[in-house]
C-alpha cells in the first residue's frame, strides 16, 4: 500500500506544474512586425521581432506575413514552446529559447501561440520530499 502511495506522490510531483497558456498577440494589434514586447505577469517578457514591411502586421491577434518574411518570438527560460495555429505555407523552427515562423507563400498566418510554464526543479523536488516525509512519518 505504501509503495503504491509513494509512487503516486512521486508521479504527481514529476508531472505537476507545467501549465499551458496562450500568448495573446492581440496586445500588439495594429503594429507592423518590427519589435514588440508582451509581458505576462508571473511568467516574463516575450519579445516579438520580425520583418517590417507594411504588408506584415498583427491584426485581431493574428500575425500575417508574406513569402520570404519571418518573425520570431524570444521567450523566457521558464517556459517551453508547444505550438500554434498556423496557416498554409509557414515553416516553424523552435530552438529552445526562440521560435521562428518563416513564410513560403503569401498571407501566411500564426495565432494562438501556446507555451507551457515549466516549474522550478526545486519546487518539484520539495513536493516529492514532502510526500516521502508523510509516508515515512506514518510508518513510525
Report on this structure.
It is a single chain. With 140 residues, this protein is an alpha+beta fold. The chain has one domain. It is 24% helix and 42% strand. The strands form two sheets. Strands 1, 4, 5, 7 and 10 form a five-stranded antiparallel beta sheet that branches. Helix 1 runs antiparallel to helix 2.
Q: Which helices and strands, and how do they pair?
A:
Blueprint (H helix, E strand, L loop, with lengths): L1 H14 L3 E5 L11 E6 L3 E7 L6 E3 L2 E4 L4 E5 L4 E8 L3 E5 L3 E6 L4 E10 L3 H19 L1
Helix pairs in contact: 1-2
Q: Topology as H/E string?
A: HEEEEEEEEEEH
Number of structural domains: 1
User: Which descriptor suits the 3D outline?
Assistant: elongated
- Name the poorly predicted regions: 1-16
The radius of gyration computed from the alpha-carbon positions, rounded to a whole number of angstroms, is 20 Å
Q: pLDDT average, as an integer?
A: 79
**Oligomerization state:** single chain
Question: What is the compact description of this entry?
Answer:
It is built from two helices and ten strands. It has helices at 2-15, 121-139, and strands at residues 19-23, 35-40, 44-50, 57-59, 62-65, 70-74, 79-86, 90-94, 98-103, 108-117.
Amino acid at each position: 500500500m505504501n509503495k503504491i502511495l509513494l509512487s503516486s506522490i512521486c508521479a504527481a510531483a514529476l508531472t505537476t506544474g507545467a501549465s499551458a497558456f496562450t500568448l495573446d498577440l492581440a496586445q500588439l494589434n495594429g503594429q507592423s512586425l518590427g519589435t514588440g514586447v508582451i509581458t505576462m505577469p508571473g511568467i516574463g517578457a516575450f519579445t516579438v521581432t520580425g520583418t517590417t514591411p507594411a504588408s506584415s502586421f498583427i491584426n485581431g491577434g493574428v500575425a500575417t506575413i508574406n513569402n520570404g518574411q519571418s518573425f520570431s518570438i524570444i521567450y523566457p527560460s521558464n517556459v517551453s514552446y508547444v505550438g500554434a495555429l498556423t496557416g498554409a505555407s509557414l515553416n516553424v523552427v523552435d530552438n529552445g529559447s526562440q521560435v521562428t515562423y518563416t513564410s513560403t507563400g503569401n498571407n501566411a498566418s500564426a495565432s494562438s501561440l501556446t507555451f507551457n510554464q515549466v516549474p522550478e526543479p526545486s519546487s518539484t523536488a520539495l513536493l516529492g520530499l514532502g510526500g516521502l516525509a508523510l509516508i515515512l512519518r506514518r510508518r513510525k
